Every structure is written in structure tokens, then in C-alpha cells.
Amino acid sequence: MISSVSVKNYRGIRCCRVENLKSVNVFIGRNNSGKSSFLESLYLASAAFSFEEKLFNGKINNKIDYLLNRRCFRNYTWDTAKEVLWYEYNTDVPISVEIKINSKNLEIKLVSLLQYPVLKFGVNDRSHEYINLRSWKLLDIANKSFVTIAPDSKSQFIKRYEKEIEFFSKTRFIDDTLLREMDVVEKRLWNSLLKKRYDKLVVEVLRKGYEVEVEDLTYTTYDDGKTYQLAVKLPLTSLRVDDLGDGARYAILLIMVAALSKDTILLIEEPENHQHPTGLLRTLKMFLDLVKKNNIQTFITTHSLEFIKLLQKTAEDKKVDVGVYFFEREEDGSVDVREITGENMEVLEKLGFDPRFLDLI
Amino acid sequence: MKKGIDAIILCEGKRDANVLEGILHKFFESLDRVVAIANCESKDSVMDFAKDVIALSSISRRLKTVAVVIDADEYTPKERGEAVKNSMQSITGDPVELIKIDNDIFELKSQKFNTKVFLKIAGDFSLPYEKHTIDDLVLQLLFLEGKADKSLVNSYRTAKEFVNEVAEHDHISIKELILNSKSENVERSFHNIIDYLKNVIEG
User: Strands (DSSP E) along B25-154, which ranges?
Assistant: First the structure.
């Protein structure tokens, strides 16, 4: 499990450190405080281990392009717009993400001369070499030179970082961009979901949380039979998943991804969007069961106090450890992060103080 | 520039908050400081105050002062101060220092606090009641304003009872009562609290 993360020079974050991370981590704070950038920086770090983004069926092929485009799709590419990833567009300094996971410290950098994030190689602090896991070449950032890694060093590296490579390779980012691509996602995941009969979970969450009288899930055709799409079987008709409300679709997405994730991290942006509390609660219950069962560490941004309360209550019942962190941007671009413990949250609530305004005190 | 809250005053309930709001409106409105009043209604007031102060003081970045106004009840100010200090120590597991500033005003110091922490024990021990509360001071104001008859002081078990009867008779809230009273009378009856608030607000 990741216990701390430090980010430097990524988008709106000049520097930021979050410590004492839990199984489920919730980030709150004003708009533009660095919450989403923090999630993105973890996604960027995961690109060092697995660069491709496979959910988007050719529209977007890799994680860096996803980060360049997910906020506003403008066909940005590394060559045309890489600077948007850098703090104040300053590509002269590397973007750095340092992660403490289990007992290991990982240092991932993105430098402007290479689209692939690289991981610090070697065990001592004197090392300036970073490894590109796609090409297995070493990058000397200071000298901007590449060297192919020796085969025995490669096997040593894989042996040493086997778990971490596996852990970060499966990272998923669940956001509105993914929701808009639901048809593509569902086609990518459906077979795996069906094999393990997790389709039952989707049916259950729709029935109990969204009052949709789903009997089962099926595939239906449209576009004169040319296109197949997932549909819910109702008592009198079948309805394409795309035609369900946004709340139900987001729940399906969340449950599908969580059911198929294992020993990895999920990055989730504003899951409260489009949700009625009943649906949100039902989805959260199932989601936390999956988080616990599949050992998924979760990072969530939210603006909803209602979501936090539902999450904390549900997590307490299910014995899942939740941390809440308040993000605040300082004038110099550093992001200050305060953990709000459960006890402090209770005190703030009792005193009538909304924790989303913690920057006032 | 961000403008945050400079000081938070914690008190025992809505009634105490009304008294403090009345005094702040009457004497401190023109100050360029942001002061919030929060009431932590609870059963175990000392322990809950201690928890609230520790939470606020440890989580804050901008707050300069957390100030507590707590009723003396049947205790002396020193006993009350010690009780708050002991509760804080039991929560933090760290030593907390209780420094006497005035007869019923203390400062609490600990490495765990990011802010100054002050404690005011409210009550007027010259009144013949078993429990002393902030209502003692409201009653003194009523005497000065000629709204309550001092000779009836022994007819009530607490100052609160006496004050309630006058307020109900005049259909007036305690805050309104303070705002409508002569400033010199409010100053005389609440001088200790006004001095305390000055310290709190000026940091």
C-alpha cells in the first residue's frame, strides 16, 4: 500500500506532500487547490510501469495523452502541447512523483525530452540514472544520455520491483471522461466481468440503488444490427446502458472497474456527480466490499460533504480505513495538505464548521 | 489575500453564545479581526471542551487564538482550570501548562497547540448561588439597569432562573438585553469578560 506521495512541478502543483495515506483516501478543498492534479500525478507515475491506455479503443492510446486531453479534449499530443503538464508550463525542470510503497521509495520523473515517465534506478541517492521500462534504457537526466541496460541488471530490477510493476500497471482513472466513453469501456471489460459473474453485482446495484427493475444484462443491437451494446433487461423491454441515467451509468462503471481490479490503485474523480444519496449509498457499500476483497487502494476527490459522511459511515461498518485530506494552494504554488482525522471531523461538525472551508482557520 | 478567522471562542451553549455575541456587537464591531463563536453543547463539558480545543488548535493553520468561556458551576476557577488542563493532558498524552493570567483567566500551553489557548471561568462568586455561570453576570446587568430587584436574589436557586423570569416578562432575548442596555452598565457587569475578549481578539 502507498503510504506517502510527494509531487513536484505537475500542472497546478509546484510541490505537495501527502502522508499517512489509508486504504481509501478522500481529497477535499476549493476548486483549483490541486486535488485533481494530485490524482493525475499518480496516474502519470503509473505510466512509468505501464504506458498504454487500453480502455479508449484507439481514441487515446497512452496515459500521457489521456492526461493531456481528459480535462478538455483538444487533440493535444506530446509534441504539440506537452507543456500543459508542467507547473507554469516550465518544462526545464522534471515533473517528479515520489511514492513510498510498502518499504520502498519510488521516484518517478517526467522530463521534456522523453514522453515516457522514468523510474529512478539504483538504490543509492547518488544515482542520477532513471530507467525507461518500455525500452529498458537508462536515462542520465543530467547528461541527457541513454544507455541500454545490461540483461542481468534488468532481471535484478524486475525481481526487485516485481510487485510494484504489477501494482501500478493496473491503475485506473475513473472520471467523467471515462463515463462519456462508457460503450467502449463496457465492451473492453464485459467478457472478463461475465466470466467471473460480476454482472450479478451490476444487476444488484441497479435494482437496490437505482430502482431499475433489472432482470438481467444482455447485449442488444442498434444501428441496423451493426453495433452491439450492453443493455438491461426490464420486465417489458430492454434498455441500452447508454440510455440509463448518468447516476446509474456511473455506478455501473465504478462497480465494473472495481470488480475487475486487484492489488492496485483506483483514482476516482467526484463520484458524487449525478448521484441521489440512495444510489450513492448502495454503490458505496458494494464498492467498499470490492475494495476490501480485491485489495484496492483508492484515491477520491470530492466536493460533497454528504459523500464523505456516507463513505465514513459505510467504511466504519465494513472496517475499511478511510483518510480525509484537505488541499489548500498557497500563493507560491505549493499545496498544503492537512489530514482531518475522524475525531477532528466530528469536532468540526459539532461546532458547525464545514471542513471544506478549513482554509479559513 | 486570503482572509481567515483570527480567533474562535468556544462556549457551552446557545445561551452563552448569545451573551458573547451581544458583547462583541456592542464593543468590538469596528475591529479588523474575524472572530467566530461556536457552542459545543455537551454533557461532559470539560472533556468536550478539551477535545474541541485540541482539535481546532492542532488542525488550524491561520487561527491565532482558541478561547474558551466555561461556567464555574460549583468549582473555583482554579479547580475548573485544572480540570480542563487534566482533560487535555489525558487526550494528548503530553504535558499541558496552566498559566494564571487573572483570577479566573488562564492560558493553556502545549507543544500540540498551533494557536494560543485561553480559558475564562465565568461566574460571579458574590452571588449566593451554589452554581456560578455566565448568567450571574447577566443578572448583575439587570440589577444595574433596574430591571431586577436585588432584594429578591435569594428567591431563586440560580441566576439563570432569575434572568429567565425577567427576560420572559419583557419578551426580550439575552442578546437584545445586552444590546439595549447602557454601555457603562454592560462594561461594569461584564468587565472581566470584555477584558478577556480584548486579549483574545488582539492576540
Answer: 35-39, 65-71, 97-102, 105-109, 116-122
